[in-house]
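Duplicate of #3305? Posting structure anyway:
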């Protein structure tokens, strides 16, 4: 079997097929990233501008996973399959009972726009828009869980299969329940998007110090909650607190507080989102930022394992804890008049990594409660013809050249299925402390 066929079997086959292909894979050390990118499935021909509403996944492995989910696309008149364009993923609001066909409302047009209806401005934009249905789960946090994270990566992969998408110009905008999702996704998948936009969202947990290299655009109405009509479960306090915490960490972000309410039918809310569409025209992701700060567990409403972020993977932690921000209300179901919001830091089981690439083949890392980690490398980060020095917690753990590997490039793709964030080498470190040896040498 030729190398290209083996690569495609790794990317799109079953677990058993992938294992078989890896066992036969020649470990090409030429340009494994370019070789892998040439094997990514694409079917760009025959895609015409306009609306494609409530379609299903075409990629077989995604159709098997999500046979009932619906994808609605808006392709601008200016689209040319020879030119890479941006992608905007739109997350709808609602709750546990919101039906799948709600998503397409983003792409429709109305003379009297209500909650969504951004059809005309999206059609006039230069990027492709996709509004996916949401996995039917019995919760108002349907965009804020690991299953939804994996699904959204699949949505982006499907869009890039159909259209010539620039992997570094993928954006996300969530409204209400979708804003909940944005506050979650910016923490767990923030490395996949050039900008994550939230309108009328909320959060309970935030590892906000981890947003180095992530662009967060947070919008909220000062009058989101309405006495006697809308309780405070998406109160502006959530957005204000997130902005204050990010400012305290000196992390660039955008906070827009308008004088409108919750619904995108409100003129002020609608204008905020139109301004967001203008803002993202010039934005682009850096897939290999010099500084990466990440935690082993993240999430806006519950904490989940979150091992990968940019070029760092946390492989194992021990039983210590780390700090993160928490917002709690004084009532389980926030009312308008009596609920107060309290911010405090809490401790969560897990570990953190802060890594810095100085651009001169030296990477410095500080860990907390981490037993094992992997750093992923590509030619944009280091010079493979020179030794790569890695210093962890003040100790030099590696100072030698690293080897490119096709298998490593495949492994890096499988982390996020992201053709714009691929790595051809990796270094894994076992940071377990041999306490018995340390005691004997003391």
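Output from current build:
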């Amino acid at each position: 079997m030729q190398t290209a066929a083996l690569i495609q079997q790794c990317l799109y086959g079953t677990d058993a097929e992938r294992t078989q292909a890896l066992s036969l894979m020649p470990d090409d050390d030429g340009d494994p990233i370019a070789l892998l990118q040439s094997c990514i499935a694409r079917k760009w021909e025959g895609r015409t501008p306009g609306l494609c509403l409530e379609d299903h996944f075409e990629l077989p492995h995604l159709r098997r996973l999500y046979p009932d989910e619906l994808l609605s696309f808006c392709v601008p008149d200016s689209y040319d399959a020879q030119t890479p364009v941006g992608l905007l993923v739109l997350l709808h609001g609602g709750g546990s009972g919101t039906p799948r066909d709600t998503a397409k409302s983003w792409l429709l047009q109305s003379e009297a726009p209500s909650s969504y209806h951004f059809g005309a401005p999206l059609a006039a934009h230069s990027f492709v828009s996709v509004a996916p249905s949401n996995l039917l789960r019995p919760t108002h946090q349907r965009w804020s869980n690991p299953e939804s994270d994996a699904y959204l990566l699949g949505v982006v992969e499907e869009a890039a299969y159909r259209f010539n998408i620039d992997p570094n110009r993928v954006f996300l905008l969530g409204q209400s329940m979708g804003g909940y999702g944005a506050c979650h996704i910016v923490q767990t998948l923030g490395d996949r998007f050039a900008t994550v936009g939230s309108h009328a969202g909320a959060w309970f947990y935030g590892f906000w110090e981890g947003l180095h290299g992530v662009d967060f655009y947070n919008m909220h109405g000062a009058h989101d909650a309405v006495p006697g009509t809308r309780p405070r479960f998406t109160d502006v306090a959530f957005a204000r607190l997130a902005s204050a915490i990010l400012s305290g960490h000196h992390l660039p972000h955008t906070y827009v507080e308008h004088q409108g309410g919750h619904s995108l039918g409100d003129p002020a809310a609608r204008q905020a989102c139109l301004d967001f569409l203008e803002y993202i025209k010039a934005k682009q992701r850096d897939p290999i930022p010099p500084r990466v700060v990440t935690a082993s567990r993240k999430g806006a409403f519950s904490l989940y394992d979150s091992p990968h972020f940019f070029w760092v993977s946390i492989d194992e932690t021990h039983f210590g804890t780390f700090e993160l921000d928490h917002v709690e209300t004084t009532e389980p179901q926030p009312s308008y008049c009596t609920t107060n919001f309290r911010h405090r830091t809490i401790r969560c089981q897990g570990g953190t990594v802060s890594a810095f690439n100085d651009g001169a083949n030296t990477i410095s890392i500080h860990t907390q409660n981490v037993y094992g980690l992997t750093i992923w490398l590509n030619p944009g980060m280091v010079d493979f013809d020179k030794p790569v020095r890695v210093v962890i917690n003040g100790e030099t753990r590696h100072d030698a050249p690293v080897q490119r590997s096709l298998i490593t490039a495949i492994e890096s793709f499988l982390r996020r299925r992201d053709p714009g964030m691929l790595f051809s080498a990796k270094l894994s470190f076992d940071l377990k402390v041999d306490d018995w040896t340390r005691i004997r040498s003391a």
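Confirmed duplicate; merging threads. The radius of gyration is 22 Å. The longest helix spans residues 146-162.
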